[in-house]
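re: ur question from earlier - yeah i can do the single chain one, its not a big deal. heres the input i used so u can compare w yours
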Amino acid sequence: MNEKELKNLIKASILSFADGNLTNNSLSLFKSLGYKTDRQSPFREKNYRFFKDSFLDGNVSFKEEKALVKDWKYVDLLFQLTKDELAIAISSPLVGEGQGEGKTRVDRTIIETYIFFVIELVNENYNRTDLSKITREINKVFPMPVMILFKHGSLLTLSIINRRINEKDERKDVLKKVTLIKDINIKNPHRAHIEILFDLSLEELQRVHKITSFVKLHNAWQKTLDVKELNKKFYKELSNWYFWAIHEVEFPNASLEADRSVLPGIKNEDKVREHNAKNLIRLLTRILFVWFIKEKNLIPDELFDESYIREHLINGFEPRKKMDFDHKTKGSKYYRAVLQNLFFAALNQTVGGREFRKDKQHMNITNLMRYESYFKNPSAFLKLVEEVVPFMNGGLFECLDHPAVIVKQHVA
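and the output i got, formated as tokens:
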């Protein structure tokens, strides 16, 4: 299965949570990631009482209040993944590392098996602290790492814990950091969530980390979810995109930045490259900020939905570059109609003052919308941004175009 096919399968598995049996949907999601085993012991009753009767006999370390057990709507034990199942999954025998008392000890970590639970909570929104506390309380009950898939409303959160051997008592281990892949939208999964889940798939972990033991699997999970690693990957992808884009984009007014004193009619290429680089960095900064506030639900998702844009927003929208692609006629439709209007005529314009520039209105009015003819329904676009997008009142979205020069011709 190639990367695109696997990501599509992960997305389909997430979408399936909209209906159907929660346990089956959860197993299907993990199966899409390559984690499949017959070592399953589903609960007869999917509730906290059954969990308590099965695992908490006399356990005083488990705190019901911290675990928010009153909010548990559904709970089930999905499966147990041991090194034997892992070896089958990656089609390779695993190497034991330091066997002792039935456990593998490497790098101050006890790794023998994973247990996966699914828990549905009664409310939609839970903060990271709440979900981490539930994860820690459950992990107090088991001698091995317990991973939990939470469903809360229309969202999923995968909770992953790291553990290490206790420095004073090697018969115990210490609960360390809980990492959450939080708020995966069941109806519209975020691309970033699909990317992270793809990175955690057995196939991808095996390709990147060459797993030869359960310990290495655990370490691969931790490295993949490490914030520094995620940041490094993000900035690497961002820089790769920049170096690609700098050879593709052409910003207006480059000729005004060029030094025309070299030769008549010949641009100074260094000045043009500097002009394009400066504007590309400014564009990236604006887009990153827009994406941040979009995640805060302050920018409509529709403005970044390719299908929606094609069907409802822009006439002749064609985002894919072709061999005969004409930048002047097609290349900047999305940038002009959506991004420029979002930057300069929405985020840089007060709510209530957003409108398209009228015919014969002065060209230098930069905080009114332009390219009305590009839209299938201009008023629908105005309504979309007016209802959601705030006025930012800052310099980041100020239009920096050179004022148009109006030349009057006098006839003798």
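The chain has 15 helices and eight strands. not sure if urs matches, ping me
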